[in-house]
Amino acid sequence: MTKPITIALTKGRLEKQTLELFAKAGFDVAFMQDKKRKLIFESPDGKFRFLLVKAVDVTTYVRHGVADIGVVGKDILLEHPEGYYEMLDLGIGVCRFAVASTPNYDPNNHRRKRIASKYPTVASQFFQAKKEDVEIIKIEGSVEIAPLLSLADAIVDIVETGTTLKENGLIVFEDICRISARLIVNKSALKSNPAILTFINQVEQSLEDRL
Ligand code: PRP
User: Fold this and answer.
1) 13-24 and 194-209 helices cross at what angle (nearest 10)?
2) What is the pLDDT of residues 21-40, one digit of tens each?
3) Which atom of ligand 1 is nearest to the CA of 118?
4) Which domains does the chain have, with CATH numbers?
5) Distance CA 153, CA 101 (A)
6) How are the residues of the chain apportioned to helix, strand and coil, as percentages rounded to the nearest 5?
7) Tens-digit pLDDT profile for residues 3-18
8) What's the pTM value of the predicted model, to 2 decimals?
9) Which residue intervals define the domain ATP phosphoribosyltransferase catalytic in the entry (predicted)?
10) 14, 44, 113, 123 - which has most CB atoms within 10 Å?
11) Does residue 158 line the site of ligand 1, with CB under 6 A?
């Protein structure tokens, strides 16, 4: 029997949308229903194995070849850009990176700014491109409170509906880029197992059919 294609999914909101997308592409993912707290699933026909992991760990599993394929947000890929091929924009989990702060923030103030973010690479690349030297403060979550408590002048963070910013009295000053979920693949698995490319092509075809 051939080895199953192992796919690392980002646990949570994205996982559900990804499975819906795979189902639309013609793959039977019914075995993923009623999953309780399980984290590894194998399809009854033995063709697929799904791993449910945290977003940042998707790239790790794919890079190490434990997973052949991964589905993860572009936000994570921008922070961890090495060791895989990015194959498809799945058009789900769409949001954006933005610079946000309290209304009195002045983006044109030349004083060296402190920028809090869960995404230090994205934040520093954005300000570097503007030739602005800033201090980046790495935060693990609830970044929105950093400007309220004067830990930082502004934040670089994900904006989806804008609700979190609004409820904390922050506004967007600059848009950085669009984010969406991407399908990534392990480099050597892509070369050695033709079934992986067939799977990716079938997902891509289904995305194109819906345009
Ligand atoms: C992200 C982001 C914002 C929020 C934006 O956090 O860091 O806090 O979503 O969404 P909104 O514009 O729809 O309000 P997430 O929910 O991923 O949680 P995390 O802080 O644990 O990463």
Assistant:
1) 90
2) 999 999 999 998 877 788 99
3) 7
4) 5-93+180-210 (3.40.190.10), 95-178 (3.40.190.10)
5) 7
6) 35, 30, 40
7) 899 999 999 999 999 9
8) 0.94
9) 54-203
10) 123
11) yes
